[in-house]
Every structure is written in C-alpha cells, then in structure tokens.
Amino acid sequence: MFKELISIWKKQDAATEIINKYLKALETDFKMYKEAVRCLRYCDSSEMQIDIYKTDILINKSEREIRRDILTHLVMFDKAEIPGGLTIASIVIDIERIGDYMKNIADLANLHKEKLNGGIYEDVLASIEKRIEGFFETTLKAFPESDPELARKVVNGYREVSRDCALTTNALIQGDGEFSVSDAVTLGLYLRFLKRTGAHLFNICTSIVNPFHRIGFSEKKNKEE
Length: 225
Known about the structure:
Helices cover 76% and strands 0% of the residues. By secondary structure, the chain is mostly helical. The longest helix has 30 residues, at 13-42. The protein has a single domain, classed as Phosphate transport system protein phou homolog 2, domain 2 (Methane Monooxygenase Hydroxylase, Chain G, domain 1), CATH 1.20.58.220. α5 (122-145) runs parallel beside α7. It is built from seven helices and no strands. 37% of the residues are buried.
C-alpha cells in the first residue's frame, strides 16, 4: 500500500521535493545521534563537533515547512494523494521528536563531564547503540524505496531493543552493579532516550508495512476488516 502511495506522490515534482525534505531531516537526525552518542560515551570532553541545539531548531523548522507543503499540495491535487500526504504528515512528527531526544542526550553529555561507562552493562549498552544506528541506516533506505522487507527489520528489531533497555533499567533500579549516583542516573536516562529514539524509527517503518490507521503499531498478520 505504502509503495503505491509514494509512487503516486513521486509523479508530482512538489511531492518529490516534500519527500526529499523529509529524508534530509531524517539524515540530520542520524548525524545528531552519532555526535551525541560519541560525546557522551567516548569523549571526556563535552565539546561537540556540531551544534545539536541549533540543528534541532532547523529540524523543527523543516517539520513546519513539510506540513505546510503537504497542505498546499493536497489542496492543489486530487484525492488519490490524500493518504500519502496524511502518512507523511503523521510520521514527520517522529523526526521532530528524535531531534528532541538528541538534545536530551547532548544535555547528559554536558552534565556528565567524563565519558559514560556502562560498567557491567557495557556490552548490552554498546549493542543497543549499534542496533539503533542500524535502524537509522535501514529506515533511510526503506522509506524512499518503499521496501517492506527492510522496514520489517526495524519493526521486528525494535522489540529486542525495547526489551534490553527495559531489563537493563530495571536492573539499575534494583541496585545491580556498582555505580556512582551520577553514573546510575545518567545511564538510566540514556537508556530511556535510546529506547524512545528506536520507538520513533519503529513508527516511521510501520508506515511502510501498515495501512494509515495502524501507523505506530505492530504489523497485523491477518487482514483487518
């Protein structure tokens, strides 16, 4: 379904421009993610190579432009383009929210002056970071190609990331591992931000495998009435 919707949109130059803006914003989110994670986890300095706060402002501006452009486009063209427009208008919110979580991780890096070590959870934490990085890469390929098989890799993979974040956070709350108060609080918040970042990439990919009314939900195997 999504592939047909995108193919309809791509027949119009204005619609193609909207899709390109969307992809550029998501690529910017990915750059912010890599820089925020690098600064918090692998540097003793909180100095960042890009200004995540200013970049987030640009993401917010892009979201508003995309919404405006979608409305203008739908007014000018036929009803067949409405589902595609609604879909993009819905998931552009996820791009904006990812930017917010990148600011949150940047805040942690600024407050936690030394690089954050996961202690006994280091292996699982590094795995979560790597998988979310993979989610970005896969989503950036799946969306323009309308590829449901690629999208399912994120949809299915997010369940494991969500579980690992929850289990690690629960263990922290229960006092497992020897952490300072600063490290424990930072690690708990970081896990939360990683989980929510993965959730928004999950939402985007559900728009490829699901009809509009099931965006944000797991794929339903049996046809819905």
